[in-house]
Every structure is written in structure tokens, then in C-alpha cells.
Amino acid sequence: MLALGLRPGKTTIIIKKAQAGAQVSVAYVNSPTFITISGDANGIKRMLMAVESKGAFTRKLLVNTAYYSSYIDLVLQDYINSIYDLKVKPNASKFGIRMHTLITGAVVHNPDELDLVKPLSTGFKKRSRKNAVDILVEIGPHSVFRGPFVQSLQTIGVSSVPYFSAIIRSENGMQTALGLAGTLFNHGVPLNFTAANGNKSSLRPPRTLVNLPPYQWNHSQKHWAKTRLIREFKLREHGPKNLIGAPFSATSANEHIWRGFLRFEEQPWVNDYKINDLTLYSGAGFITMADTQNIRTITGFRLRDIQLISAMLVSPDKGKIKYTLNLKAGPNKDWYQFAVVSFGDGRSLTYNYIGIMLVKYDNVQLGLIEQLEIAAAFATASSSYHQTIDPGKFYETLKHVGFHYGPCFSNVTSLFCKPGTCVGNIVIPDVGFTIADTSPILDNLYKERPHIVHPTFLDAVFHLGFAALMGDGQKVINPMVPTYINEIYLSNRLPINVKKHLKGFAYIKMAGLKNLQTKIAIMDEQESSPVLTIRGLYCSQINNATSGAANIGLPPVVKKEAS
């Protein structure tokens, strides 16, 4: 048998020209452009040479019998007699299982319709929804008709119909037939498993064996399926924390992940931060997440290149908001890349802020020269003439331009300002889980602290910059939100005692028309050394007249070198 890349009419002409005569005939019309011929060896050889000379496709089939040719007449009657007793089961159509003949494409009802002499064709003349099929199974020595069937189905716009064969060349026929049964069952075809696996000629039904020797169970070895995620969750060293949540399984050895849920009933202070009547999670809250880790052995943090990309809109009606803090090793030793990602609607992922952080388990205090410079700047700002600003009026002014700070965020208690400079006191608020001022041992106070700085205090540090911009308190400013910070230094010696006051100062200047650049420092209780510094804080204005979803995303980052 020989497969040819020719049309039926062209094939008949070549058969005549090659003088193959009755020795070769068309056995199978695979597709409109693909034909299989059958005949004796000499006729097939002449056809092979004739077609190859025309540059058409040829492939000799791996069979030793000239199927669907006149040579099959010798065994045709024996073949019909061997299948004469086959009957179509009356309930076969109930399951949608039909057998088709490739001679006419019609459904087979009796063995007389099966033929090994007449040519076959996959191009059925009758196509209807009644004859539509979901699965095609070929009963034959190999899936030789798979390609032609797929091509024929594609010509009528049908694709993705599963095609299987009962027998596969060079494989055990019983195994391939049973494999076909399993495949059909997986595709939803009802099967008689007793017929597939059992022996119908058995005189007795199958029984369970009860005389097998006892199995030697090894009870010393426990086999309990636990995934890495479950194992790490159950054996985690630290539980959840209010600001960052609980440790979560990472995807690599150099990565740390915390996953948390923002709930109003657990952190009611969140509701005290509003801009243009929208309740947002404070940008300071994202920053404090990065430094809320195992503080027992950490003396401080340096955070650099902080980009606050998108604000997190919160509302009691939205329920809990899922967020994650990701830390992974940076390009330099001891530096980590960090990012806070939230899932505000429960489906889409939003990057809220990114940056890099230095974490050391030894002294990470500011350099001596830097400490002296900040102390000198603080002394200069404190000694120069400033106008006293009432904090109540200050927050009332901010409220008129869109900033709505509730009691948890209104933590500036005194202000002494002049244009571009401000000195003020900030009180540490009681937000429900800050360590009380009655701790008997100071070292324990710093070791057991839940965080280095709380968002409500850090956000109040930003307020010193707004006060410096207002100068004498009469200048009206537009609502601004932090968008970029060159560097933040946080010392583990920063007090967190409730109602304790810390003094700080801010220098400010405008960077363009809508961007604010400032330097801020908070001093220790002795006012001799800084415990919190901010260099290169850039704030961008947002439209005061606009509300709704347009204000949720922050303006583009304005990244400049701080002077």
C-alpha cells in the first residue's frame, strides 16, 4: 500500500499512465488531496517511481497485505463468515455509541455492510447533528486513519475531537485495548468493567481471597502527608503581629514573607486617616511594616529609595484586606529589597511601596559626624526666632484643605515655626498595644516592643514638614502625600512609651510646583542624639477637588537627589 499526496482524479490518470492496470487501485480517499492506493508489489513500485518523478508526496505503508483491493476477494467470503454472528446491541445507541463504515460513512447495522474490497473515504457525504460524535475510536491494527480524519473534520469546521485506537503497532494488544477502556472511562463513557476485567466463561463469580498471610506492618515509621507550607505554618517560630501579620512560606532561601489581614476591629486607628473624605492606610504604615520584625537583636534600620507607589483604600464595608510584606536579599551584603503588596478587591494584586533596607544585628547607629551635624542643626533651629502655632488650629487648617486626622494621628502637641523651618513636640499615642510606661526594666522595654515606631507616630513626624511649609500658620497648602524618600534611619532606642513627648525639627523647600522636599529629625529624650531621621522626603500634591477612585493611586514618583 502506498500513500500519495494527490487528488483522486489525478491518481487515476497516473495509474493508467504507469500501466499499473488492474494490479493497483484506490484503497482509501484520506482527504481531498491525499490518497492511499493498494495492489501488488510491482504495481506499487511503478506508481512510486511515477509519482516521485512529479515531486509529489509518497510514503509506503508498513503492511504486507493489499487491503481494499481485488486481492482481498480470495479471503472475502471467509472474512464475512467469521463475523456473520456479530450483532449490534439494542441498547448501544442509548449510550451514544455507534459504529460507522468508511465505505459510505453510514452507521453499521449488520456484518454485510463491512467490506475489505471497496475503497474507503473519510469525506462523508451526509453530515448532520444526529451523526455528530464526541470521541472517535479506530478498530484496527494501528491509528492509520487519525490524520485523514482530523483533516476531514477540519474542512467542515470541527476540531478537538479525541481520536483513539484499540491497537498500537509494536505494543501488546491486550494492554492497549485495556488502556483504551480506561481512557474512554476518563472521558465519561460508561463501561462494563466486569466484561473488561473478568472472565465471562468462569463457572463461579469472583470471591475475595481470605487465606493470604498477614502483612508485616512497620508501625515505627510514620507516614503522614504534610506539604512544606503546612509544616512551616505549624512549626513557625513567631506568631502574627499587628502590623505585618504572620510569617508565610517563602519560595526561595533568601526570601522572607509575612502575610496579614487589615481588619477595622483589630486596628481601629486606621479610620483616623482620611484624605479628601477617603479613608486610606497611612503611607507611614507601609514603612513601619519593614521594621517590624525580630527586634530582640536588631539595633536599628536604614531604609533607602522608598517609593510609595499606590495608596490602600480601606473601608469597614470592604471587610478585611489581605497584604504581604516581601523581603529578599539585595545585591549587597546585609541589604534587603522589600515590597508591600495588597489585594484590595480580593483578586487583583497592587504594589503599594518598594525600597531597600539595611538590617544589622550589631551597632547600626548613625556616624559620629552625622550625629553632630544633626544635633547642631537642631540646636540652631531651636534657638532661632519662631512663631508659636497652636496645634489645634494647625490640624483645623489641614482639615479645610482635605487632611482629616483623627485623635490617633493628631499627635503634634507644640509647634514653633518660621518659613521653611519648624520645631515641634510629638506625643506617642496609645493605640491599644503599645507597652506601658510602667515597665520596671528598661532593657525589657526595648526587647519586648512590638515595633520600633508605630504608623500614627511616624505620620505625625511628616506633619512637621507641613508645618514648616505653612510657616506662620496662615499659608494655605494643598493636600500632599509622600511619594518618595531617599533614606530613613530608625533606632531601636526610639521610645514607644505612651504619652511620652519627643522633640524634632524639619527643614523644607519646594521641589518644583507640586513637590515638597524636606529633612526631618527626631531627637532622643536628652535631645542630644537623633533616633529617627528622614532625608529627601518628597511629597506630591493631589487634586483637592477630585474625589473617588481617581485619588486612590498616588502621583508619579519625582526622584531627585536630596540636597
Automatic annotation (TrEMBL):
The record's listing under Pfam families reads: PKS_DH_N, PS-DH
Q: Name one GO molecular function term.
A: fatty acid synthase activity
**A GO biological-process term:** secondary metabolite biosynthetic process
Q: Which residues form the PKS/mFAS DH domain?
A: 241-548
Q: Does the keyword Nucleotide-binding apply?
A: no
Annotated region C-terminal hotdog fold: the residues are: 383-548
- Keywords tagged on the record: Multifunctional enzyme, Phosphopantetheine, Phosphoprotein
InterPro entries named among the record's database cross-references: Ac_transferase_dom_sf, Acyl_transferase_dom, Malonyl_transacylase_ACP-bd, PKS_dehydratase_sf, PKS_DH, PKS_DH_C, PKS_DH_N, PKS_mFAS_DH
Q: Where is this region: N-terminal hotdog fold?
A: 241-364
> Which chain regions cross the lipid bilayer?
none
Protein name, please? PKS/mFAS DH domain-containing protein
Q: In which organism is this protein found?
A: Pyricularia grisea
From the broadest rank down, the organism's phylogenetic lineage runs: Eukaryota, Fungi, Dikarya, Ascomycota, Pezizomycotina
